[in-house]
Design brief:
24% strand, 4-stranded antiparallel β-sheet, Immunoglobulin-like, 2 domains, binds zinc ion, Aminopeptidase, 417 residues, single chain, alpha+beta, 9 helices
């Protein structure tokens, strides 16, 4: 069997990333004195309008929306506050109720999370993630994806993931399906707190639990030893695979953890709702440039300022974002009915239901302890529903994904899970 070709639109998307556009977004966001969620008309409201105008200027098929609601008083919200997410959406031409969501949070903070007055540039946390998100929107503005895309600039992350919860809840309430969600948060600084520069990879955090799984599914997961294969981890592996196929000199590090130790992010409400959701963060954070009052102290320049963003690094982060969002949004939906035959044969038989939107399939194989797929086996036949594989089902994990006629690959589904 010969392999499937690359998807040309992914290659084009990776070439369309503009470092200058990324710089303009970050400088534009940092020009506001603060983007603290509770800064009201003189801060965060004006920022939301600026984001709406910037997204509208990209034209094409983007539907730009400001989603405003009254957030009640809460742990980090001292009075009921009207706050807004900003989205650009492209509805899916084939699957109108299915979405890929990519996000960054546009709110910022300083040392005291309730301080809505002090200068809070938030260049890396998280103007960098907003810049990635809206640059991918600019690149894909004229595309017509099969699966819809929501490019989301979210608010209230620092006050308790408010914007992400609001968006996840509203999608669930409408009965929509999120095929894949990723938040880009702290993705622009390559120089770590240890003084070491790391420019060749990005971390992908993915939780191992599967919220909402039925007791039958939980029993099957335990008995088949597929604990490391939650939907969120399957998404992380798919992005790692896109990086290998399309991005030279830049890779991913899949981390088996919902988030950095003891911390949280905007992917969590989506993961909790049962969707595949991951977080992207730079390799090596520098906390002197996050959540800090701007100040000089013992010769250290504290503050999250644009001069600490590595735009060449951020460009590579964005190339990978453009690649995987393009690939998954232009692919068929993931395959259904993917199982392994339980027999005592030394080979493995995989079965699935044929997908009319696919031209073929790829079987993915890895040893149970490997974070990333090790082998890809093409099946060049749309009507195929079975394959015999020369691997022991005791030692390997198997996935299956659909390939569309354009060469786009769906997310994988883990066999037998
Ligand atoms: Zn953040």
């Amino acid at each position: 069997m010969t392999g499937f070709p690359k998807f040309g639109a992914v290659v084009n998307a990776t070439r369309s990333v503009s470092t200058e556009q990324l710089r303009q977004t970050i400088m534009g966001l940092c020009a506001f004195p603060t983007r603290h969620t509770l800064s009201g008309a003189r801060g965060v409201d004006a920022v939301a309008d600026w984001l709406v105008r910037r997204l509208q200027s990209y034209g094409g098929n983007l539907r730009v929306e400001k989603d405003t609601w009254l957030e009640p008083k809460g742990q980090r919200v001292n009075k009921p506050s009207t706050i807004s997410n900003v989205y650009a959406k492209i509805p899916g031409s084939k699957y109108p109720n299915h979405w890929v969501v990519i996000s960054g949070h546009y709110d910022s903070r300083v040392t005291d999370v309730m301080d809505s007055n002090s200068n809070a540039p938030g260049a890396n946390d998280d103007a960098s993630g907003v810049a990635v998100t809206i640059e991918v929107a600019r690149i894909l503005a004229t595309s017509k994806p099969d699966v819809g895309i929501i490019f989301a600039a979210l608010t209230g992350e620092e006050q308790g993931l408010l914007g992400a919860k609001h968006l996840a809840d509203s999608l669930v309430a409408k009965g929509e399906t999120v095929v894949a969600m990723a938040t880009y948060d702290i993705v622009g600084n390559s120089m770590g707190a240890d003084g070491k520069k790391r420019t060749d990879y990005i971390r992908i955090f993915s939780g191992g639990d599967t919220p909402g799984e039925t007791s039958v599914a939980a029993t099957r997961r335990r008995t088949t030893g597929l604990d490391a294969d939650s939907p969120s981890r399957t998404l992380a592996r798919s992005v790692a695979d896109v990086a290998k196929r399309y991005i030279k000199g830049f890779r991913t590090e899949v981390v088996y953890r919902q988030d950095r130790f003891g911390r949280g992010g905007d992917h969590s409400p989506f993961h909790a709702a049962g969707f595949a959701a991951v977080r992207f963060t730079e390799p090596n954070e520098d906390w002197t440039h996050q959540h800090q009052d701007l100040r000089m102290d013992a010769g250290i320049d504290y503050g999250d300022k644009p001069e600490y963003v590595d735009f060449a690094y951020l460009t590579n982060v964005t190339r990978l974002a453009a690649a995987w969002v393009t690939d998954i949004s232009h692919a068929p939906l993931p395959p259904a009915g993917v199982t392994l035959v339980t027999d005592l044969a030394p080979i493995t038989t995989m079965k699935w239901r044929a997908n009319p939107d696919a031209i073929g399939y790829e079987i993915l194989v890895r040893r149970s302890t490997k974070a990333e797929w090790e082998k890809t086996i093409p099946i060049n036949k749309q009507s195929a529903t079975e394959a015999k594989l020369p691997f022991s089902k005791d030692d390997y994990v198997f996935g299956l994904r659909c390939v569309g006629k354009n060469g786009a690959r769906s997310l994988a589904v883990i066999a037998g899970r």
